[in-house]
Amino acid sequence: MRNDISVLFDLEARPNAPLHTLCETLVTADRPESIYTWMRNPKVRTTLAQLGADERSITHDTLDQLPTSRHIDHLRAILVDAHLLPQRDEALQRFERWLAEKLEPLPVDLRKPVERFATWHHLRSIRRKSSATTNSQSSVHNAKQEITAAIAFLTWLHDEHGRTLNQCRQAHVDLWLAAGPTTRFTVRNFLVVAMKERLVPPLIVPHRKSKSTRKMTHEDRIEWIRRCLVEEPDTVAFRTAAMLLVLYAQPLSRVASLQIDAITEVEGDLHLTFNEIPVLILEPFAELVRTHLAHRAPSRTRDVESSPWLFPGGRAGTHINYSYLMTKIRGLGINLLAAKNRALDDLVTEMPPPLVADLLGYSYQVTTQHAASAGDTFAHYPTLRR
Hints:
Shape: flat
Order of helices and strands: HHHHHHHHHHHHHHEEEHHHHH
Strand order of the largest sheet: 1-2-3
Mean pLDDT: 84
CATH architecture of the largest domain: Orthogonal Bundle
CATH superfamily of the largest domain: Intergrase catalytic core
Distance between the termini: 57 Å
CATH topology of the largest domain: hpI Integrase, Chain A
Low-confidence stretches: 377-386
Helix content: 55-70%
Radius of gyration: 25 Å
Number of domains: 3
């Protein structure tokens, strides 16, 4: 494989240090068969040959100019993991491209209010929170839903009623919400922001009402904890992730992005930090965590020891994909929302809600609501935050 890559990059004629480093990264991959499979793709070979022939240094901008594809994303991840490119928030970059493509075909009257909402409400917030080591996937997903809903509403308002946003009235909002699926309530945030900026007259936009709160029983939660501890060995990673959901009420988006340094060992005891305060991991879950740490799945191009993620992803330097993890946990038979709600209900009856919030990274409002739902409230208890 070294000869194939050397010829592809023309390394003898081009003493390009980054290309030599990339070549070494590929030929020393922990799973060489995956590199062989990847490089058999004609598009991959064409891209690698282009990089080898390009006199410019390899940058994010160089890759951004190539057509968007999975093999470009994979190559970028390899380059970042090999320290040939700096880390960056890829979810944010994809969102910026998605937004430009979404807005471009809209007529001016529709595009301006959506662009204002997308740029100043969502994009500015995501950029402010973003860093080279963060992943804005969850925030981007929410922003896309709200922007798509805003476009759908304004298009309907224009096509069906011949009106623009500033001509929208309460009857239009009521009709929009009543005549379609519950996903239409996602437009609420757009209209609230528009009212604050006086782009639309005062309106009443209700929250979507949940028909029922999904919760598993306390007994089912205990049974799932038992099953996660003793099921088949080949599901260790997913059972560990599931335990973080059913035991600590951690959303899978947060579980997916946990880093390995969130786990510390003090005098033989494992601790896991979700927020700022380490939480003791009790046996036998601690043993499951140790087993997972010893057998974390390697990426295609680096050995597992180099991964900073508790649940490494298939691409170099990335954590496990949230959607993939969600599918796997559901595949075990666990209702994700029901498990999280039951875990929070149980936890806030065992300790003060503010303490649960501080330990697990929830807001006081959420844990207090769960305490009220569970028939117990500790709102008067002191908090751990300073």
